[in-house]
Each structure stands twice: as C-alpha cells, then as structure tokens.
Amino acid sequence: MDLVAPVVVEPLRRRRCAECRRGPLDRMIVEFNRIVCLDCADLGHLVFLRRGDTALTRRAREGSALWAVVVRHNRRRTRYERQGLLVEEAALVRAETACLADAEARARRRARDTARRAERDAAITAALEAEILRLYPGCPAERASAIAAHASAKGSGRVGRTAAGRALDRDAVRAAVRAAVRHVDTDYDTLLMTGLPRHQARASVAPAIETVLRSWRAG
Predict the structure, then answer these.
(1) Nearest-angstrom CA–CA distance, 166 and 121
(2) pLDDT digits over 10-34, tens only?
(3) Angle at 182 between CA 179 and CA 188, to 5 degrees
(4) Which of 13, 23, 84, 190 sits at a 20 to 30 Å CA gap from 215?
C-alpha cells in the first residue's frame, strides 16, 4: 500500500486553528478547507528535521511510524518548497546515532587514505631524489632533496607529478634539475623582473646552468 504523508504548511501570514482557536500558528495543516494546528491534527508530538542531510532524513523517515512533509510557499517562484520533515523524536535520535557512526567510519577511512597518499608521495619524492643523485653524483644531498620535494609536490603539476616523472624518465628528471639550477644558481629571476623576455633570459643564463650541471655530473 502506498503511503501518503500529511503535508504541513508554514504560513506566510498569521493564522489560527479552526478547532482550538490558538494562534498565530508556526505550522498548520489544511483539512476540508479549514486551518488546523498540529496538536489538533494529532501531529504535535512530532519534531522538525530541517532538509539538507539526505542520510539523516532518509533514516529518520524510515524509522518513524508517522511523519509529515513541511512546506512553505515561495511567492517569487509561485510554488511550495519543501523545508523538511516532522518525525517521531525516537526515530530522529536513532537516525542521528546511525549517522554519527557512519561519520566516524568515514573519518577513519579518510585518515587511512591520507596516510596511504602521504606514504606514496614520500616514496615518489625519495625515488626522484635517488635518481637525481644517480645522474648528478656531485649534486649536494640537500639540493637533491630540495629539488625532488619541489618537483614532486602534490597538486603542483610539476615534473615529479607527471607520468614521466613518476617513471623516472631521464629527460624529465634532468628538466627538473635544470629548472632548479636556473632559479637558484643564476640571475634568471632578476632578469625576468627587469622585463627581459623569457627566451632571452634563458639564453643569457644557459652557460651558467651548464657550468653547474657539468660539475654535478662529474661528481
């Protein structure tokens, strides 16, 4: 049998109950063209659950023997819009408990995922650092560590986060090292700040970069 939930209205103007004459009413139902308060409609024992939390709403509705839909008229859109539900308080408490357990489980899963990602990121950085030192045995250890950390920073889109970088492609690793030397060991950034076009600035510092890389390759 299909269930038909009562519809409770939040009135936009002051209303009184046609049976008990109480008012103004915060919520009401309309029975046979008469305004009736929730107590007279035998809905006064229900508690309001505002819309927004889908899982909580579903669980509270399913656990409540009696529930009602709460709506309010939107004059601008000329339609009634759902505000939430009226449910039994015990059903709401059970639903909140179940959702809290779910939230704790999700938090634990997020923590595990974060730890796994951190381990994977650390492994990527360590592998990149080792490859830098293999290609450039004369590179100071702290520089190799800094270059690897910068190139493999999560979300950076730099060489270390690309497929080639993760695969330790030789050209990708060399590109990361060259970029680091360009910014740290030359006046490239200063040239850019003077307004020199990038390609000219790169050409200007290319000999200095090669000098550093040659010494690092020689060990």
Answers:
(1) 10
(2) 999 999 999 999 989 999 999 999 9
(3) 130
(4) 190
Q: Are the C-beta atoms of residues 207 and 129 closer than 8 Å to each other?
A: no
DSSP run (H or E) holding 173: helix 170-184
Does the predicted TM-score (pTM) go above 0.90? no
Beta bridge partners of 71: 9, 82
Strand 28-31 with 79-87, pairing: unpaired
* Closest by Cα among 5, 181, 146 to 82: 5
CB 70 within 8 A of CB 83: yes
The SS3 of residue 42 is: coil
Pick from 77-81, 86-90, 117-121, 142-146: least confident: 117-121
Q: Distance between CA 67 and CA 198 in Å, rounded?
A: 68
Beta-bridge partners for 8:
70
